[in-house]
Amino acid sequence: MFPHVQHGANPDTARLGIVVIGRNEGERLARCLRSVVAASQRVVYVDSGSTDDSVALARAAGAVVHALDMSRPFTAARARNEGVRRLQALAPALELIQFVDGDCEVVAGWLEAAVAFLDQHADIGVVCGRLRERFPDRSIYNLLCDMEWNTPVGEAKACGGIAMMRIAAWQQVDGFRADLIAGEEPELCVRLRARGWRVWRLDAEMAWHDAAMTRFGQWWRRCLRAGFAYAEGVRLHGAPPERHWVRESRSAWVWGAGIPLALAMAALGVGAVAWWGLALYPLQVARLAWRFPGPARARWARAFFLVAGKFPEALGQMKSWLLHARRRRAVLIEYK
Q1: Does the residue 147 lie in any domain?
Q2: Which residues, at least 6 apart from 298, have a Cβ–Cβ distance to it below 8 Å?
Q3: Is residue 209 assigned to a domain?
Q4: What digits encode the pLDDT tens for the residues 51-66?
Q5: Percent of the chain with pLDDT strictly greater than 70
Q6: Is 3's pLDDT higher than 90?
Q7: In sequence order, what are the beta bridge partners of 22?
Q8: Which of 187, 270, 289, 301 yields a CA-CA distance of 20 to 30 A from 46?
Q9: What's the confidence (pLDDT) of residue 5?
Q10: How far apart are CA 160 and CA 175, in angstroms?
Q11: Given pLDDT bands bounded at 50, 70 and 90, which one contains residue 318?
């Protein structure tokens, strides 16, 4: 039986702190801060080198501003860690942290529901809800984000960057890995689950997200970053029993690199007839579209871009392995 939130609960959110991270989010940051400042007196905004008025906006909204030292490599993981430590210095008795990205708006009622749920279930270290794209009709890429975030309700293996977490759980695993440029939330959840904590996705509205992804190049770089994250995840936790992102990694290698390479080699031996093997791709799209739920347009779009995304994902994995071979530090892969 799934745990549930008891209706009518009146949780004490005084034990809750908020960490918002962002850079050059402008009005989106102002909207984000308005959605959380009223619900908590302890809000830290971690700024990563904004050149707009983000810092002034945050101070005017009532948040404590923590500016990252940009002479050190920036990652969202490092920003979240520093935000938690700043909150702990301001309010050592805090027990819960809500992480929010500056391009998101927390839905009214989410914080209270999440606190109540964690109060009822002491073994759950992280809870998240339904994250929705604010403008899914503006581009197919925004729509893909909205579908991606509609994850199953109940116990989960991982959460995204918008989630509520127990500080005790965060401390037990020493927070996020600050050197990861992508995939830091699922990696943290791997370590939390290894310590006996559970991750849960509530059937509750959590936040609106503004991906602002309207160009093919943005989608390509986002998939490239996902592939990079797969490779890092496999390197860190790919061994049994976790086998973190092994399936996703293999799928990207097979469809994004293995099949094209095999067909190219076959063409050297049997000629152009080998390229008929490319029919595997539309067949795979059709197979996935048949399996996915929802309206036809959404199913076919999701299937097409899922298959097409294997190419940048494979390139992202190549980038990860090449950097490790050269012992070089990864540079943030941004899509907006």
Answers
A1: yes
A2: 143, 147, 292
A3: yes
A4: 999 999 999 999 999 9
A5: 96
A6: no
A7: 47
A8: 187
A9: 39
A10: 14
A11: very high
Domain end (from 184, 214, 244): 214
Task: For residues 38 and 180, state if they share a domain.
Answer: yes
Distance CA 262, CA 281 (A): 14
Tokens 């959840």 belong to 189
Reported confidence tier of residue 10, pLDDT bands at 50, 70, 90 = very low
Catalogue the E-assigned strands of 68-173: 96-101, 104-106, 124-133, 154-156, 163-166
- For residue 144 the two structure tokens come to 């893909």
Output phi, psi for 154, to 5 deg. 120, -160
- Pair (206, 259) in one structural domain: no
- Domain with 53, as residue range(s), is 13-214
SS3 216: helix
Upper half-sphere CA count for residue 107 (Cβ side, 13 Å): 19
User: What is the pTM assigned to this prediction?
Assistant: 0.91
State the Cα–Cα distance between residues 153 and 206, nearest whole angstrom. 13
Residue with the two structure tokens 């210095």: 89
Sequence-ordered list of residues with C-beta below 8 angstroms from that of 264, at least 6 positions apart, any chain: none
DSSP secondary structure string for all residues of 261-312? HHHHHHHHHH-GGGGGGGGHHHHHHHHHHHHS-S-HHHHHHHHHHHHHTHHH
How many residues make up the chain in this entry? 336
- 207-263: per-residue pLDDT in tens? 999 999 999 999 999 999 999 999 999 999 999 999 999 999 999 999 999 999 999
Report the CATH number that the domain containing residue 59 is assigned in CATH. 3.90.550.10
Helices and strands counted in the chain (H then E): 13, 9
